[in-house]
Amino acid sequence: MTNQNQASGRPAFSHKRRLRNYLLDVGLQLRYTAFIILVAVVLTVILGYKVYQATQESSRIVLLTVKADPLTGAELMKQFQANDRIVLWGMAGFAVVLVLSIAAMGIWMTHKVAGPLYNIAMSCTNIRDNRLPPVLRQLRKGDELQSFHSQFGEMYAALRTRVMADIALLDRAIETLERQECRSAEIEQLLVELRAYRQDKQNSIDPPTRT
Rounded CA gap, 50 and 14, in Å? Predict the structure, then answer.
């Protein structure tokens, strides 16, 4: 961030990517992913039932063939059973691949929402704890809520600007009181409180370096 940005109070944005856990909000992401998986499972079961009905109809035809021509019917029954096993394992494999694919895509897609919400939640925690660092983390390319996060960033910058304006106003008030040669005990106590309040605001936008 440049000195000009620091002076204006507008937060800079960090573009550095970091490898993070995709499950930032486990409850939110798994809940929506589970719902999508449930829908996929229901549709797969319905499809499997339709296939089962079709195989049952084929079985009925084969049984009729067995009664009419036992030799030919036995051969057809053997082929049908082999094909039936292939279809059964194919449906089972398809269901497993479908569930795993949807789970992966669900977590990946919800991560694009959970990530921005996580960033905003962390910024709100900083504001609650009277910490207003100059750098507000930027969203990743492809994340959702870009417009909302941009508005949040403008609000955050305005908040820092107001704090800096408060510090300037406190500096003038403290300077005015310090110019008085004869100060009462009440004025001295007020100066102590104003200096402490001013330092607290300064620490909120420029926290002291820990040694």
Answer: 54
Q: Give the number of other CB atoms < 10 A from CB of residue 37.
A: 18
Structure tokens at 53: 């009905």
Domain boundaries, the chain: 3-146
CA dist 142 to 15, 36, 109, Å?
13, 21, 10
Interatomic CA distance for residues 135 and 1, integer angstroms:
8
> Which tens digit of pLDDT belongs to each residue from 90-104?
777 887 888 888 877
One-letter-per-residue 3-state SS of 9-63: CCCECCCCCCCCCCCCCHHHHHHHHHHHHHHHHHHHHHHHHHHHHHHHHHHHHHH
Query: 71 near 125, Cβ under 8 Å?
Result: no
- The backbone torsions φ and ψ at residue 210, rounded to the nearest 5 degrees and listed phi first, read -85, 135
What is the reported pTM?
A: 0.53
